[in-house]
Amino acid sequence: MTVTLKDVATLAGVSVKTVSNVVNGYAFVKPENRRRVEEALAATGYRPNVGARNLRRGRTGFLALMVPELSIPYFGELAGLVITAAQKRGWSVLIEQTQGTRSRERETLFSLGPHLVDGALVHPEALEAADFPSPGEIPLVMLGEHAVDVPIDHVAIDNVLAAQTAVSHLASLGRTRIAAIGRNPARGTSSQRLAGYRSGLSAAGLSYSDELVAPAEKWHRSVGAAAMRSLLALPSPPDAVFCFNDLLAIGALRAVAELGLRVPEDVAIVGFDNNEESAFSLPSLTTIAPDKMALAEAAIDLVHRRITGEKTLPAQDIQTPFALEIRESTRG
Predict the structure, then answer these.
(1) pTM above 0.85?
(2) Half-sphere exposure in the Cβ direction for 144 (13 Å, CA)
C-alpha cells in the first residue's frame, strides 16, 4: 500500500503540514517534531511522489546539461558533480553532448523547453550571441570560457590568469623556450588560454614565437603526442610546454618518453583541468586545478534561483577558484 503524509503524521503525532515541512527540507521545525517525523518516515518507508509534486509546481523535475564531449574526462567529472549538486535541490539531470560544433549546439539548445526541462546548464564551444533563445524563454546558465555577449548567468574560472599562472611556473624554473599545445581559433577556451600563455611569457620577459605554438583541432591524447613530436623536431626545441588540457599533456608525456628524453629534466610539462588521470601518469602531471565542485554548485544555485522566482535579476558572472597543482612533471 502507498504510504501517505497523513499516515506519517498519524504515527508521529504531528500535523500533515509538519511532515510536509520536514520532507521538503524546511529549517523551521521544532527539533523534537523533526525527530518524530524522521522516525515515522523510516518506519513507514515513505517515499515522496516527485512526479506529482513537480506537476503541482508546474515543473518537470529535470535540468539539462550540455557539454562538448563526455569522453574528455573534465566534462565527465563535471557532469557527475552537477548531478550531485542538482540532486540536493531535487532535480534530475539530462545530459547532451554536442561535439563542440555550432550546428549541434544550436540544435540542442533550441530543443530544450519548459515541456522537457525546467532549466539548462550549457558549456558552449562555438555558439554565438544570435544562437541563444530570448531571455526568459528558459532559465539558462552558461559554463566555461567561451565568451558570448548575452545577458545570461555565467560561471567559469579566470582562464587567462590560470594559463598565465601555468606559464609563470615554468618560467620560474628557468625555462626559456616555453611552447604551447592547443591552439584552435574555433574554440573560445583556446583563445583565452592562448592569451594567458602570451601574458605569462611577457611577464617573464620572454618573447612569443609562433613556431612554439602547436595547433590542436581536438584536445585528445593522440593530438598532444603528435604536436609534441613536431615541437621536439624543431632546430631549437622547447624546454617546457604548457598544454591547454590534461589529455594533450598526457599525449605529450608519451611522445617525450618515446624519443628517449626525460620529464622534467629535458622538458617540463604543465596541463590544465586536474583530471584524475593526471595524478597517476608517470611522471605525475603538474596541472591547473579548477574547483569543479564550486563551479557545479554555483551553476546549480543560479539556475535554481532563476527557476524559483528570481527571473528578473541582472545576469551574474561568477568566477570560481583554481589552483596550480605541482607534481613530478615540473618538480621532478
Answers:
(1) no
(2) 24
How confident is the model at residue 256, as a pLDDT? Answer: 98
Q: How far is CA 168 from CA 84, 161, 260, in A?
A: 35, 10, 27
* Structure confidence by residue, pLDDT tens digits, 12-50: 999 988 988 888 767 678 899 999 998 998 888 887 655
What pLDDT score does 233 carry? 97
Helix (H, G, I), strand (E, B) or coil at 256: helix
* Residues 107 and 256 placed together within one structural domain of the fold: no
Q: Do 170 and 269 reside in the same domain of the chain?
A: yes
C-alpha 22/C-alpha 187 separation (Å) is: 46
Return the closest-CA partner of residue 74 out of 34, 31, 125: 125
Q: Are residues 165 and 276 in the same domain?
A: yes
pLDDT at 115 over 80: no
Local structure of 133: helix, strand or coil: coil
Are 138 and 114 contacting, i.e. CB atoms less than 8 angstroms apart?
yes
- Alpha-carbon Rg for the chain, nearest whole angstrom, is 24
234 with 85, same domain: the answer is no
Looking at the fold, whether 193 and 278 belong to one and the same domain comes out as yes
**pLDDT attached to residue 311:** 65
Are the C-beta atoms of 248 and 271 separated by less than 8 Å? Answer: yes
Domain that holds residue 115: 57-156+292-320
Contact 160, 131 (CB under 8 A): no
Q: Are residues 303 and 270 in the same domain?
A: no
Asked if residue 163 and residue 148 are part of one domain, the reply reads no
What total number of domains does the chain contain? 3
- Under DSSP, is residue 134 helix (H, G, I), strand (E, B) or coil? coil
pLDDT, tens digit (0-9, with 9 covering 90-100), for 248-285: 999 999 999 999 999 999 999 999 999 999 999 999 99
The verdict on 89 and 205 lying in the same domain is no
| pLDDT tens per residue, range 10-20 | 999 999 889 88
